[in-house]
Amino acid sequence: YGKNTIKFLRLHKEGKKHFVKEVEVCAHLRLTSPQEYLEGNNSLVIPTDTIKNIVLVLAKKNGIPSLEQFAIDICNHFMTTFCQVAYVKTYVQEVPWQRLHEDGVPHIHSFICVPDGIRFCEAEQCRNGPLIVFAGIKDLKLMKTTQSGFEGFYKNEHTTLPERHDRILCGELFCKWSYGECKDFDFDCIWKKIRECILEAFAGPPDCGEYSPSYQKTVNCIQMLVLSRVSQVQVIEVVLNNTFYNVVDMKNLGLTNDKEVLVPVEAPYGSCACTLGRKKFFEA
Amino acid sequence: YGKNTIKFLRLHKEGKKHFVKEVEVCAHLRLTSPQEYLEGNNSLVIPTDTIKNIVLVLAKKNGIPSLEQFAIDICNHFMTTFCQVAYVKTYVQEVPWQRLHEDGVPHIHSFICVPDGIRFCEAEQCRNGPLIVFAGIKDLKLMKTTQSGFEGFYKNEHTTLPERHDRILCGELFCKWSYGECKDFDFDCIWKKIRECILEAFAGPPDCGEYSPSYQKTVNCIQMLVLSRVSQVQVIEVVLNNTFYNVVDMKNLGLTNDKEVLVPVEAPYGSCACTLGRKKFFEA
Amino acid sequence: YGKNTIKFLRLHKEGKKHFVKEVEVCAHLRLTSPQEYLEGNNSLVIPTDTIKNIVLVLAKKNGIPSLEQFAIDICNHFMTTFCQVAYVKTYVQEVPWQRLHEDGVPHIHSFICVPDGIRFCEAEQCRNGPLIVFAGIKDLKLMKTTQSGFEGFYKNEHTTLPERHDRILCGELFCKWSYGECKDFDFDCIWKKIRECILEAFAGPPDCGEYSPSYQKTVNCIQMLVLSRVSQVQVIEVVLNNTFYNVVDMKNLGLTNDKEVLVPVEAPYGSCACTLGRKKFFEA
Amino acid sequence: YGKNTIKFLRLHKEGKKHFVKEVEVCAHLRLTSPQEYLEGNNSLVIPTDTIKNIVLVLAKKNGIPSLEQFAIDICNHFMTTFCQVAYVKTYVQEVPWQRLHEDGVPHIHSFICVPDGIRFCEAEQCRNGPLIVFAGIKDLKLMKTTQSGFEGFYKNEHTTLPERHDRILCGELFCKWSYGECKDFDFDCIWKKIRECILEAFAGPPDCGEYSPSYQKTVNCIQMLVLSRVSQVQVIEVVLNNTFYNVVDMKNLGLTNDKEVLVPVEAPYGSCACTLGRKKFFEA
User: Fold this and answer.
1) pLDDT digits (tens, 9 = 90+) for B179-218
2) Whether D158 contacts chain A with CB within 8 A
3) C49 in a known ligand binding site
4) A172 and A150 in one domain?
5) Does D84 show up as a binding residue in the annotation?
6) For residue A136, is it within any domain?
7) pLDDT mean over C160-177
8) What's the rounded Cα separation, in Å, for the pair A147 and A166?
9) Known binder of ligand: residue A48?
10) Among B162, B281, C96, D48, which is disulfide-ready with D4 (CB 3.0 to 4.6 Å)?
């Protein structure tokens, strides 16, 4: 197969107001015959340069109504135009430009980059198969400074970790979900709703939070809340890359450190992940 | 000289509400004698490990009232404690944790990382010299989709750039300023005010913007606005790392692209910088 | 599942001569029950900290005879020690320290880091399943300045790429292969032999090279040569991330540029990949 | 001022043998008047695009006989062509392509990237001032597994570091030197000689090494050896970014770890630097 990455900006205006989407598109094709690998016969190969042109032309003609719709458009174009394509996958990721505001007034053409979780989506299709759409968020960094512990774990002669009932829970979250049959979904609205679910499940109620007995359970809470609130989601995968913080031992410096000063522990660096579907549970 | 980097988290509570600062501190010492370099005599050397302990102990004892005050505290500690220190510089940078909100309600202990411009400061002092404090913002990415051009530049036989009166202005901004005599400044408040000035000078009025004839002039506008609005700033340096976007030529694809689809040009990558003071102008 | 990364250094001496291996180990476990996700019951969970201790203890006791043997040792330990482990995968990657030489004389304890292709391996096992070992090389950057072209590809209205019979072929190579039944393989020796095959197939004979009609065909040549020369390899995957170079058009600068000055094209960035086995061909 | 970065490849042939240099050039100009900043008057501004064209044209016409000569050529061009240029600095850095060898036979057109220390240089000139040339090496990672300690350092109540007489010395080296009057220097030959001096001073004799009482003393040894062996070097700056390794305490795991298993300590991360000239010593 071949794949390639294209970065570009799509502008449009409504009256004097400007709208901008900057995206990175990665298209991934598999052909029906591997003859270019085996025989050096290039006659079916669609060059990277042509793929780039197609993506840019589609952006020019259709705009980017939503990341998901744009990914669907690209898949459809390749499947209907090239009979030598057996499989196509399109990944679209957004640069998080947000409109600037001055004293609450939105600016008509100025933007600031606010990377507090990057939105992406995928569309994939095999010839004669259904078109499947995924969406997700990545690089979302969250922290809870209390209401987190880790106790009652398995112990043997290699265990040195003490039990803790009041630690920091901090990590970088990756979340990806699949939609079922994509009718006329409002992808932007659903995405925002899911982002809110993630934050709510991570943090708990604003006045007291909710105790997390492990990173794993927090991952599961996020999945359960999304599945219960957002009916369009079929399967949801969450990966939480943990950053651990150790309370600095200041006894030999003559001080008592009551969880006031902590240092990040860079190794070992842990991660936990789980994929949860509607009826069937699978953990991978 | 020697320097080193220490990352840590400082937590404190007011009632049930948690506050968090995660910082990266870089301390830079020069000793009165270079004997450890020339003779391998370590008797005056303050080990990295000791410097780390001092920074952590100061954070524990004083907290981090503001980045600037913490940097000042560290400088003062080294100057008053170690007579072999000839010069000390402290750099403090913040991880941009922001309190989470649920339906507008602030969460008592949950935070999200929002890196839309990183705050930093520096304090430096030579023995018997004044303590000088700098503050700044970096990694602030901004874009204007119109009201920017570049015309009337110098031309010769190596010129191929066309004049443009409606291009994209996009870049990553670095801004650093020095304070004069630091009395009881409200460093947090001043920093926020300067950030607003930068955004305002970059973008212009929200309903129409302001035409920028060059990256250089935009840099100057930012400096002038900060100096006029914030009396505590003595000297201000601005560096703007430009990202250029080219309108894709779609003629050979049979289309007219009216500044709708643009691609970033990764090389050459340009940058312009200027340092501006209150009375005296110096360009470096 | 959970995974985590551990970095460490393993030293040993033979007489006065020092040997060093610095590795990054990533262990990946799946338990027989997902109860920690669903119920917050941690009683079967093996903490990251324990996994780190086990890896370090195994390194201390057994050393790192080869990356592959070390990965096998870790898998075996988890499978035989913890009956709650359903699946284990271990990834081991090496920091490429090489012994320093002075005028051809090897130094007994000094090393230089030479990252011209990073060696890694993987071992994985399901409970009651076979132990499977993979090895590979990554971040290997290669260039041919001639004997490469791309012609006869599929064309339609979106094609703008000209045919070329003398271009630069440049890319970053990733290669991973699986071993069959691992008897007493000399993993170090086999790895070096495969690296030589890759370089030979990429470059062709030293006096004239060999024409490459596409990145895809070069990928296939590498696979075929490895499979024909190294009988222990069962399946081999190659990914080539291409860097394209364009000859700079200097006509409007009054010069003819005969493939003397070229600039890298950063987007679109292409990649081609293929997996080839002994009897069966599968392209993914 | 303005600066920008240009990446390109320069090929040339001698008979059938190909030679390649891939470089990154950064040119930095300051004009005699800041009118483009203050008044938005662009009439003296040399666009980034023009600078790129000039660099590429010079590479096409003169080739890149050595990095230093190419940097000198660029400076000369700007000073003699543009009377509005008050100052020019050119930085040139090389991508470390090395010719491939098969069984000791050099390949005529195939190369491998071997980043074991990156070569760079700088040339700078003020109008009516001398042309000054610097050269250097960066990203050179070195390790000594013994013959290094750190003892007799300053101690007070914040000291927790134990004295050590057999630690690992590991770091990333940056080294930059200036040449005096640049006559017809063989820059390639001098650079190789200095690289050898660095390695020799770092490692000591191959059969026994040489004891290092501190990172600082090792920095000084490197400087002294270069100054004594290479008469063309006027001033030499060395920065050593240290990576510390801690022997893992395995007592609570029932094992004695005799400096066999060590983990890198990522924070605090230290660095020491020194600049040494021929007659005058200055430490900064």
Assistant:
1) 977 778 999 999 999 999 999 999 999 999 999 999 999 9
2) yes
3) yes
4) yes
5) no
6) no
7) 95
8) 6
9) yes
10) D48
Residue C157 and residue B263: Cβ atoms within 8 Å? no
Tell me if D216 is assigned to a ligand binding site: yes
- Cα distance between residue B160 and residue B158, in whole Å: 6
* Distance in angstroms (rounded) separating the CA atoms of residues D188 and B32: 38
Number of domain units in chain C: 2
Mean pLDDT of C72-86: 96
Instruction: Using alpha carbons, list the distances in angstroms from residue A198 to A173, B19, B107.
Output: 9, 22, 14
Report the Cα–Cα distance between both ends of chain A, in Å, rounded. Answer: 25
User: What's the pLDDT tens digit per position in B233-267?
Assistant: 999 999 999 999 999 999 999 999 999 999 998 65
Rounded-to-integer distance, Cα B235 and Cα B284, Å: 13
Same domain, C208 and C94: no
Question: Can you give the CATH number for the domain in which B123 is found?
Answer: 3.10.270.10
Dihedral of alpha carbons A74, A79, A80, A84, sign: positive
**Cα distance from C272 to chain A (closest Cα, Å)?**
4
Low-confidence ranges of chain D (pLDDT < 70): 1-3, 266-270, 279-284
Strands A261-265 and D169-179: unpaired
pLDDT beyond 80 at B282 = no
The two structure tokens encoding residue D243: 């990576």
Q: Is residue B134 part of a domain?
A: no
| Residue D34 touches partner B, C-beta closer than 8 Å | yes
Do residues D124 and D93 make contact, with C-beta atoms less than 8 angstroms apart? no
Tell me the residue range of the domain where A124 lies: 2-129
Q: Please report, to the nearest 10 degrees, the dihedral formed by the alpha carbons of residues A80, A85, A86, A88 taken in order.
A: -80
Q: Which of B97, B206, B261 minimises the CB distance to A102? A: B206
Structure tokens that stand for C167 in this block: 């271009």
Q: H/E element holding B277?
A: strand B269-277
Inform me whether the C-beta atom of residue D143 falls under 8 Å from chain C C-beta atoms: yes
Q: What is the ipTM of this complex?
A: 0.94
Tell me, yes or no, if B157 comes closer than 8 A to chain C by beta carbon.
yes
Nearest to D253 among A158, A263, A266 (CB): A158
Q: Which residues of D touch C18 (CB under 8 A)?
A: 145-146
Q: Is B264 on the interface with A (CB under 8 A)?
A: yes
Integer Cα distance of B17 and C140 in angstroms: 51
Residue B234 φ/ψ, nearest 5 degrees:
-95, -50
pTM: 0.94
Q: Are residues B82 and B207 in the same domain?
A: no
Cβ separation C143–D20 shorter than 8 A: yes
Of C115, C142, C264, the CB nearest to D115: C115
* Together in a domain, C125 and C192: no
Tell if the CB–CB gap between B264 and C267 is shorter than 8 Å. Answer: yes
C40 contact residues in A (CB cutoff 8 A): 213-214, 216-217
- Binary contact (A82, C36; C-beta < 8 A): no
pLDDT of residue B268: 56
Minimum Cα–Cα distance from D111: chain C residue: C143
What is the Cα gyration radius of chain C?
23
CA distance C270 to C109: 42
Answer whether residue B148 shows pLDDT above 70. yes
**Full DSSP string of C12-53:** EEETTEEEEEEEEEEEEEEES--HHHHT---TT---HHHHHH
Single residue among B129, B162, B196 that ends a domain in this structure = B129
